[in-house]
Structures are given as structure tokens and as C-alpha cells.
Amino acid sequence: MPVFPRISLKPEVSDYLKSIFLNKELLTAVGHQEAEQRFERLLTCLSHPPSHTCVRASTHLAPLEEIRKRLAQELSKQHLCGSSSGVSMEIVPHPCIPDVLLLPVDGPRPVESLQSEVVVGAQCGSAVLRGAHVFAPGIVASPKFMKTGDIVSVFSDIDGKCTRGATSFQGQKVFVGNGVAEMDRSAIFCTNEPTKGVAVHMTEPLYQSPSFDGVLPSLVFLQNLPSVVVGHVLGPRPGERVLDMCAAPGGKSCHIASLMKDQGEVVALDKIRNKIDRICRNAQMLCLESIKVFCFDSVKAVSRDIDKQRGTEGPPFPPESFDRVLLDAPCSGLGQRPNMASTWSLKEICSYQPLQRKLIHAAVSLLKKGGVLVYSTCTVTLAENEEQVAWALKTFPCLTLVPQDPHIGTEGMPGAGLLPDQLCLLQRFSPELSLEQTQPNTPLSHRANTDTIGFFIAKFLKN
Ligand code: SAM
Question: Where are the domains of the chain?
Fold first, then answer.
């Protein structure tokens, strides 16, 4: 792992995470030294991007091999640094997931920073580390006289302290690569309307991977590997009625509809109105018509007053309305990569457990007997993962844990009182366990299974 800052966390959050990784059950299972090392590795992994880019192929529209060939053709048109004739890169089908293509990420590369500095927000900086160019809304500071064509260095304002419109920034920032300005400074900051479009075209990114902006939009969809695994674990079939309770921006809803060959119904709910459009746009882009989108608070999505026979098209729904329910829960997001700094307080991080429990209550009620509930998060805490499973099993005797297919991650983490057999049924993606596998000669498909974002999946059957 290269020298690159570890994720910076508030001390109270760092102590809390450490207490999870050094919990009594885990210490007994792996020993103190290994547990400490895992925690230290986690902090390092989180600030780095995974070593591969994962795209989900629209296999409801074309066979995987055809999509792979077309993607290779499209990417060969991109002229990346160090390649005069465009990119010719490895695009590998995942060995056991039939709709995933993997591309290696090259980095960190030895790129020198220049004098002319553009500062971008942390989210934009993370996107650049995963292959994106810099879009105008992401820029917070630029040189006073920046003109189109200038060569600039891009820095990420990891603590969000830089004032918008500044001409320089002396605070904590991390270099993410060099690029060419595609806009003058005045076009970015001196307009009444928010400016759209690429403002810096990255020519020498610290981590190099292709940009997917506008590349085969209906055939490839950028999605983290664990998120694709969720769709397969849910196992939807054509003709079923499936609920995605927290759906925006719709990556998993679209995957579910694709696995169902667009036959049946995928009800996609999200509480935030301005995120709803994203679900609709993604569904349209991927030519999926079976997704019905509603802006709704899923905690309130079940109503006993509605006649079960009559049902309703939109929420609230009568109990036992769905064959399968996905609860990809709002969470503290501490598994997201790359993430160089989190300004969240411990109180904010701990606020998710009660909300997730309310959502699980609604999920269990909305599920038909014999139906499948998948609960997932992109975080690493016990409170939002294994503890939720232990609580759900105790609160809802109708639920049992069932095996997941595929199961390519690790098992659940000890510490929440679950039995070893139960931990085996859970699936954690633990990037801190992947370092020994990230040696340069390890095949991409092997590295990809563990060098992912931190993620958690539990699958229940309702008896
Ligand atoms: N499943 C999504 C995907 O794969 O694209 C990502 C979902 S994200 C982890 C969690 C989502 O839950 C956010 O979009 C948030 O707006 C939504 N959310 C939070 N509380 C909610 C609630 N009470 N009801 C419905 N949606 C909620």
C-alpha cells in the first residue's frame, strides 16, 4: 500500500471503530495483534480506491461477451496518459457473477504536482480517484486567472474547509492528479446559473482508470461489486413483485428489474424527492419498464387499513404484498472508498440503528410468507450490521437466516452474540482482509472479491 494519508476521523469515531475491531469475541477468535492490524489496515484501505473498476453489464439487452467487446472498442477511443493510441486494457468477466466486468485501476502513479492549483470538494476528489473528470460544480477554488487550456493540479479539500470561489487554499488537501482546464475561472464562478459540464479534463490522474461518462450508457452501469452481489443474493424471478425500500439512485432497482427480464414489478421507494428523478432516469437509460417509482417514507409504507384483495399500485401497501424485499438501508457509510476524511460525529454515526430497525419492521410486515428479505449496508459497524441481524432474529421469530448465492465475501464479524453457524450465513466485504491479496501478480478477478468497499449483506426467509 503506497504512502497516502489514512482516512481522517474524529477521535471519538476512531475510538468507537477501534472498539469494534477489538471486541472481546473477535479478540478471542483472531488474537489481539491480528485484530489491531486489521483495524489499522482498514483505516489505510478506506482512503484508497479499490484496485479495480466494476461495471454491471445490461445482460437483459445483450450477451456479456458482446458488451465486453463493445466496451473495449469504446475505451480504446479514450487517450489516457502514457498511451498514444488510446487505451487497450484488460476487461475481465467476473468468474462467478454473470453480469460483471472488471477493469484494473493503475495507481498510485508517480505524478508530480504543479504550481497552478484547482481545489475540489471531497466527493469530487473521490470521484476523480475512481476515474472521473472534474465537473464544474465540484470546484471550490481555482487560480485567479485560470483560462481554458491551462494545465492545473487538482487537490481534494478533504475536510470541506475551503471557501467557494477562493483563489487558493492553504488547509488540508490531497493531490489527486493533473489535468487541462476546459473552462475559464469566470465560467465556473461568475455566473448566475450553476455551471454544468467538465471543467478539468484529467490527463494525469493519480489513479488511472477509464472515464465512463457517456460510454455505452444503456449497456454498462458503474456499480461496486458488493452492490451487484446484493441483486443476485435477493434472487428475483420474472413475474414477481419486489420492493426496493430505499432505492435512490436506483442502481439496485435496475439490477433487480434486469434479473427479472423486466417482467413483473419492482416498486422503488425513496424518501428524498430530488433523488427520485435519478431512479427514473437510470431506469429509462437501461430500457427498464417494470420499475414503479414513488417518493415515500418506507417506515410508513405499510397500512393495515387497505383491502388486501384490492391492493394499491402505490404506497402505502397492505401487509404481505411482496415476494421479495430489499432493504439497502441508509447507514453511516463508513465502508465507502475512497474516503479520506469523515467529519461525522459519533452521535451521527449512531443515529442510524433506530431508523434501520423501523425500516426492518416495515420490511417484515410487507413481505409475503415464504418471501425473501435482504438487508444490506455500506458500512463496517457492528451496530448497523450483525447487531441488527441478532435483533431481527429475536424480534421476528418468523425470520430465519438463509445461505447467500454468491457468497464471495467474508463471513459476519464476531461481537454481536451470533453463533458461528449464523456468522457463516452472513456476507461481509472487508477490504482490510484483502491486503495480502493485492500483490501485483494476483489475478484481477481474485483481488476484486475482497478489495472492495466495506459492505454487509444478510438474507432472511419469512416463515
Ligand atoms: N439502493 C440504492 C442504490 O443501490 O442505488 C442506494 C440506497 S442509499 C444506501 C439509502 C437511501 O435511503 C437514500 O437514497 C435515502 O434517501 C433513502 N432513505 C433514507 N431514509 C428513508 C426512508 N425512511 N424511506 C425511504 N428511503 C429512505
Answer: 52-104, 117-205, 225-462
Q: Name the superfamily (CATH) of residues 117-205.
A: PUA domain (2.30.130.10)
**Residues framing ligand 1 (Cβ under 6 A):** 227, 245-252, 269-272, 275, 297-299, 328, 330
- Residue 136's CB is within 10 A of a number of other CB atoms, namely 19
Closest residue (by CA) to atom 8 of ligand 1? 330
For the chain (length 463 residues), average pLDDT per consecutive 10? Answer: 75 97 95 95 94 96 98 84 56 96 93 96 94 96 97 95 95 95 94 88 94 94 98 98 98 98 98 97 98 98 80 88 98 96 95 98 98 98 98 98 97 97 98 69 81 98 97
Ligand 1 mean position to 451 CA, how many Å? 24
Residues tagged active-site: 378
Residue in the structure block whose three cell numbers are 421479495: 324
Closest ligand 1 atom to 272 CA: 16
Which of ligand 1's atoms lies nearest the C-alpha of 377? 9
For residue 328, the CA-to-ligand 1 centroid distance in Å is 7
Question: Could you tell me the distance, in angstroms and rounded to a whole number, from the CA of residue 96 to the centre of ligand 1?
Answer: 28
The closest residue, in CA terms, to atom 2 on ligand 1 is: 247
Pick from 221, 227, 258, 270 the residue to mutate for probing ligand 1's pocket: most ligand atoms within 8 Å of its CB. Answer: 270
SS (HEC) of 24-64: HHHHHHHCHHHHHHHHHHHHHHHHCCCCEEEEEECCCCCCH
Condensed to tens digits (0 to 9), the pLDDT of residues 137-193 reads: 999 999 999 999 999 999 999 999 999 999 999 999 999 999 999 999 999 998 888
Q: 303 Cβ partners below 8 Å, 6+ apart?
A: 316, 317, 318
Strand 427-429 and strand 117-121: the pairing is: unpaired
- 61/74 Cα distance (integer angstroms): 18
In a mutational test of the pocket of ligand 1, which residue from 227, 242, 243, 246 has the highest number of ligand atoms less than 8 Å from its CB? 246
pLDDT in tens, 288-331: 999 999 999 999 999 988 776 665 689 999 999 999 999 999 99
CATH-assigned architecture of domain 225-462? 3-Layer(aba) Sandwich (3.40)
CA of 33 to the centre of ligand 1 (A): 37
